[in-house]
Amino acid sequence: MATSQERIIPTDLRNEMSRSYLEYAMSVIVGRALPDARDGLKPVHRRILYAMHELGLTSDRPFRKCARVVGEVLGKYHPHGDTAVYDALVRMAQNFSMRSPLIAGHGNFGSVDNDPPAAMRYTECRLEALTSDALLQDIESETVDFVNNFDGSQQEPTVLPARIPQLLLNGSSGIAVGMATNIPPHNLGELIDGLVALIGNPEITDTQLMQYVHGPDFPTGGQVLGTAAIREAFTTGRGSITMRGVANIETIQQRGRPEREAIIITELPYQTNKAALIEKIAELVNEKRIEGIADIRDESDRDGMRIVIELKRDAYPKVVLNNLYKQTPLQANFGANMLALVNGEPQILTLKNFLQVFLDFRIESITRRTQYELRKAEERDHILQGLLIALAHLDAIIALIRHAADTPSAKGELITTYGLSEAQADAILQMQLRRLTALEADKIRQEHEELQAQIADLNDILARRERILEIIETEVKQIKAKFATPRRTIILHGEGELGDTDLIANEKAVILLTEQGYIKRMPVNTFEAQSRATRGKAAAKVKEDDGVEHFLTCCDHDSLLFFSERGVVYCLKAYQLPVGSRTSRGTPIVQMLPIPKEEKITSIVPVSEFTSDEYLVMLTKGGNIKKTDLTAFSHIRANGLIAISLEEGDQLRWVRRARVEDSVLIGSRQGMAIHFRCDHEQLRPLGRATRGVKAMKLRAGDELVGMDILPAAILDNLTPISEAEIEEIETEDIENEESTEVPGNGHHGPWVLVITMGGYGKRVPVAQFRLQNRAGQGLMATKFKNRKIKDQLATLHIVNNDDEIMMVTSRGIIIRQAVNAISVQSRSATGVRVQRLDEDDVITGVAIVPPDSGDAAEAE
Prior knowledge:
The protein is of the alpha+beta class and 860 residues long.
């Protein structure tokens, strides 16, 4: 016997720790935490299902106590704690955890409120029909390998012969050592369609497979925002998928109480705890982090989920709902990490990889099943051939058996005399006398012929891969017809995607935003053209302390960039804005955009396409100007994006689209204007988080009122107008100021349209505004008429003869008229009356309506 000293083996601690930890890590990775990519199961789940199969707990048999199943699994296959086994069994029976549950449960198996299941001595279970048909079918046909269990007393399968991609169907999650997996569930019908597409076209790509497998399909329903994250997860194996519960705004009536609006939540994101969600909302309300909620209650029952969030009278339902999405688990992210075991090694898999690994495994299973059936058929046919030989020599064989001394002697003589095998000789000796009748003999011959045809068919299957693929396709289509269910999770088009624009007519629209933040959209044809110097029509129901602040035209498919005074930009599609009538006030913009109540929108820019050859030119109240590439704003987050850095006390006021060869025209309240180019010499391009440079030198008490862009093609092809022509036009205007005739129509644009707050306007030839260097004082753009209330410049725009303009006043009165109805005058003229105004009413904005284009300029 070795001494204690001899039993000590010197070893290096570093190497021992490394080896031991690696063994432990691989044991966790392979034997516990990660699913197999073939059947989508971890060892504990596989052992539970196989044990239930061995117990005969199929869907057509009675339920059995879960404790019986857990004991079977522990005693035969899984030498771990009973809690681990029971928890895994419970999860496979929860219809809110599994898209297609693998176990049918009877009793309390937990709830979406995270209630614990009843003890295993109370609950009962059996296999679902899908499990028997799609995971355990053919397991006795040598389709998969079996290995010894932990003590060598039993055999257990290394994988189940799955007929469907179960890993994608129900998903999986697990934390191993140094790695983790998180695979979302999908729709069975879509997965089978994708598998059939892969069989038909082995070169299909992940993106093409998305035509069949649209995205995750969670058992709790809900919504998935956008397809970009789904595409990323399917093509790279990783992605953060945004999930959102289903909530509707309803008006509820309770006895003895006035009607109130309420948010009704009917579906939750996957793995969201309903009770914890309600508790979180109540906590946020108590901390006053969410305002507008009067009461919250859970009205869920066996018919479905219903969480009622009752709102206060003055609450904006959309604002409250947006806050719930932002601050509670009502909107959550699913971090997809598509990690699974392939040939015993963890691998990140794409959608095609998942389906290809499964398809390869299924081909192997069909091949092994066919080989097993072929062997059994050949063994049976071999016996039948021996019986047919016996029937052909019946009398001689009977005589041989009768005269034999014992069974071994008879068996030996049969083998020697007729060339039979031992198996055939045993079958003849065991043949019953009733098999000697003519009818029984015919049955043996018929069975032999059928087996011959079957053997030929099985050999053909093994020889031709396309036959195997046909079998796989037929089997999965049968499963789809029997078990597929409609999609539960709705995939919504996310930010920046076209969505349903193809169903929306791309018509011209007018956008109005008031000082107090009410916005609405109206068709341009709501306002017919009117003659000059009329009063116009009301365009909005404006209160005394409110006024129209922003006014523009665009097309319904355009992206609208909303720039706030803080220099933050938000984005909405024009068609997402609610349509209002001329007399409606509109919808609070805080319901459409996540902006603080005290923040104001100072500029709105419509963009039909984000091209790399265009810039956004931004001008601040303090006179700083800069240009930034338009593509920098093509993907704007839901909570906005920084567009410009501002000095303390400064505000972003005007934003326009421009090209590098264009020029910019800026006007001031006292009637000055400066004109300079947008090239990189005058305005070099800057990033988003920059301040810009000085635009114009202002006199004391003056301020900027607007900016417009002059396209280079127009600037380079200007037709100069002589001073004599302008003087002649001015004289004509003075004589016809109150006339309906249109002077100056013999000339063509473009023009600088100058409109004053007092209702006067004119067209000035662009050539009169010579190009200067940036940061100068500029030139006089207009003179003002002597009035009791001192007139000021409202705005200036670049217009063409065939344009129309829409002017809006602070009281919401709109007039639409042709540009050529406004006289052409020089810079030093005062203009003609373009709109009659009520006392204390002023023009606040002008929008241009081009004849054939949806591009529009914004009004100040």
